[in-house]
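Action item from last week, closing it out:
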Amino acid sequence: MFREMMTMFTGDKYCTPGIRSRIPVYLQNILWYMIETMVVPHKDDLQVFQLEGVYEAGKWKQKIVHSQAQSDYSQSYAICTKSIFTCKIFVIDDRTHCTMLLAEEY
């Protein structure tokens, strides 16, 4: 089981047309990195990201809430960006590859 957890989200990575057209590559890479570096006893095969704008310290920032479908995990981040995106993104690992998609593409 430990070996299986170590290989979660390490396969080929794909993005759907919705992700490619609406989410910039730098933000896609941040989401992949958040999955790769999360420290949990078990990575669920469905990762969830909620993106929205938040006003902090006189600036608009991109808020990213990262959670898992089956396990008690939630991390919130606020990063400075030029553009704010509001959407829900799923990342699914089916053991052969990983797919990032907008919730409405599910």
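Closing note: Residues 2-105 form a domain with the Nuclear Transport Factor 2; Chain: A, fold (CATH 3.10.450.150).
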